[in-house]
Recover the amino acids of this structure.
């Protein structure tokens, strides 16, 4: 895929969650590798042949734990990693989590990553925004049963879940004034569906590029570089610092 897109002269190319390892229970355990795994090191080294920033998901084995990791690679170097912060019940069976939310910089642009379920909450992306990120990548592995899944006393349908997830991305883009780039998998089996709705939203929440459901394709959009370096006219500095302190206090007091 990197070879196929080389002619597009992309600044960034984001692959879905757990793209290199797979996301089944067996795949997470058996395909998890450390960052010094020789084929992975060679893959990173090969990126020196082009100028695209590559973001790709894997299951990373580190210090006796497995993390849901997105690698950030540029010109033969690993710029860093992001570990999924907020785990689903399924994730928690296999993955560990941490609160290291790095802001990366490449091409003169500050950007961050949140993975799949992280986007069900504003807080991880909001933290990255306060740290200066204006571009947000959201790799997903949305593969669920066609009939949906139970939660509490009701069942969430496949399409209800899809609409909610897409709305979450648009909301993050709109409220945080970030360009949001979502990549997702395609899965078509009797047990699971993943429709591969990889979309891109501008800072007004408009979907400016959308993938065709169940069709594997590269979704691209072009933006003026200045929008990532200049504060939006809805300036986050308008938010009183005291209000942020109040939110933090309310979070600590929220019933557990």
């Amino acid at each position: 895929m990197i070879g196929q897109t080389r002619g597009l002269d992309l600044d960034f190319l984001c692959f879905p969650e757990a793209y290199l390892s797979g996301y089944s229970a067996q795949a997470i355990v058996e395909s998890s590798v450390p960052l010094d795994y020789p084929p992975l090191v060679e893959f990173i080294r090969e990126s020196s042949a082009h100028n695209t920033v590559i973001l790709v998901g894997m299951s990373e084995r580190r210090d006796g734990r497995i993390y849901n990791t997105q690698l950030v690679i540029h010109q033969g170097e690993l710029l860093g990693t992001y570990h999924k912060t907020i785990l689903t019940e399924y994730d928690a069976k296999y993955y560990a989590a941490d609160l290291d939310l790095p802001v990366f910089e490449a091409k003169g642009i500050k950007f961050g990553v949140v993975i799949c379920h992280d986007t069900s909450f504003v807080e991880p992306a909001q933290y990255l925004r306060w740290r200066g990120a204006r571009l947000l990548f959201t790799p997903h592995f949305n593969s669920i049963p066609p009939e949906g899944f139970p939660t509490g006393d009701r069942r969430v349908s496949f399409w209800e879940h899809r609409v909610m997830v897409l709305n979450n991305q648009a909301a993050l883009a709109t409220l945080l004034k970030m360009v949001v780039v979502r990549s997702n998998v395609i899965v078509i089996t009797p047990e699971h569906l993943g429709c591969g709705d990889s979309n891109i939203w501008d800072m007004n929440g408009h979907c400016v590029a959308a993938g065709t459901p169940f069709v594997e394709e590269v979704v691209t959009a072009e933006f003026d570089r200045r929008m990532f370096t200049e504060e939006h006219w809805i300036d986050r500095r308008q938010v009183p610092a005291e209000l942020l302190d109040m939110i933090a206090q309310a979070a600590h007091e929220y019933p557990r």
In short: The first strand starts at residue 12 and ends at 14. The helical segments are 2-5, 25-30, 38-46, 89-92, 123-130, 158-176, 241-253.
